[in-house]
Amino acid sequence: MSLVPRVNLRRTFLIARRDYLGYVKTWGFWISFLLPFLFGGFGFFMAQADLDFSPPQYVTVLDTTGEHEARLMDLHAERKDDRAQGVMSGKAFFIQDKAKRAEFNRVLRSEGTVAAQAYLKENVPGVRTEFEMPEDKFKFVPPPASSLEGLVPYLLGEKMISVDGQPTELGGAVIFKKGESRAQPQTEYWSTNVNKVDVPDLLDVYLRRMARVTYLETQGLSVAELDRRVDTAPEAVLFNPTKVDDADQGVDSSDTVPFIVAGVLAFFLWLTVFSGAYMLLTSMLEEKLNKLLEMMLATTRFSEIILGKLLGVAALTLSMMAPYIIVGIGGVVAYIFFGPDQDVVKGLVSAFSAKMIIFLIIYLILGYVLYGAFFIALGSLSSSMQDAQTLTTPILFVLMACLIVIPMGVTDPDSPMLRIATFIPFSAPFAAIVRLPSDPPLWELLLSTAFLTLLCIGTIAMAGRIFRFGVLSGAGAEVVVAWFKRVVLRRKA
């Protein structure tokens, strides 16, 4: 008897086509297919509409000491300027020359956004210098009353303040009272919205700064000089001794981008395997409950049904992922040809190497076959959706556990745990992909592939037997439990 089951390609193709078209003709498939484009268009519309769903909170300050209100306003303006610098720092992404990019960052840190804009105009004319100032989450307004008792009706919404001639609710009130010392005033914040912590956070920063200023001044030191020295302090420079194609062996975006790309591809692989395997389960369970499998077995072999379902759902999964694949490939190609940061371009080119593409395809096929065979077998044993969920819970836990290796590969690609996961067939597809940018030995990848292939062959053989047993005898989970008690636990029926 041949070890390889006989398969009629025409019947296998008909089963695959039936499973594929059965899903493609549904509304749910096309909704899922068009979702990326719908969300993309919606996001573009919202960006162009410039709608404000979170208007700023209006806060007043009642300073009975006369010392802290002005300083608090200065700190608020300073933090707003820091946010503006954070937005402006994104302009460095469009400066290709490393020396000019470093000088731009230095000017931005030491001289501010206005000087940085002037530097861009003079030295990098191709980069737009305009940028939008971040919106305030809260704004200070003059106090409508001179005491806390007078402010309470405004805080409760019983009275309104006037902002630009429009009646507006008062969101909060900051109260400064004399404390134990000048650096430690008694500070209170009154508001009915206890979930908004932006103002309390600003007050905490202010009080800590006041404590520092008071201490340094008593020691005869200047806070401004300390801040200047901290802002102009040099930054650490990273080097990689394994870089032989770079004269200075410095680390830049071209070294980190491949690990990010590998993490994204590994997650895409996991999502494809998970969605495809789960669709196999639901397809198998639906046809078993509707007695369609018994009708198919009259003219079709078990091996043809399993292979046909694997091929049909695989084609369906790739069709559902097609929008994401198209958008991803289009974005990467566009950035490679038109991207301003050549380090990122170099990293993208090195990330999509021949080794990455080959092993991505190999692990995609083997991972899908492995988990798909498990779900086909469990689906044939199930007699209801609740039954199927109970049986597949262990496999779902395994799949969820495999997600751990993806962020680990991005942040710590040399982790021994990640290397061990490469040789465990259940996690091998994801662990091996995220390890590829660190250039693991080829024998490790081949050995991992061999282990995964052997387990796939064994799983398919086991799935065929379970499928035949579950369909012909109508067995369910209770039969598996009875077998486990009889054979493993040695209990009599």
Automatic annotation (TrEMBL):
The chain crosses the membrane at residues 27-47, 259-285, 306-337, 357-379, 391-410, 441-460. It is found in: Membrane. The keyword Phosphoprotein does not apply. The keyword Transmembrane applies. Residues 27-463 form the ABC-2 type transporter transmembrane domain. Keywords: Membrane, Transmembrane, Transmembrane helix. Pfam families: ABC2_membrane_3 (PF12698). It is a multi-pass membrane protein. This is ABC-2 type transporter transmembrane domain-containing protein. It comes from Litorimonas cladophorae. The lineage of its organism: Bacteria, Pseudomonadati, Pseudomonadota, Alphaproteobacteria, Maricaulales.
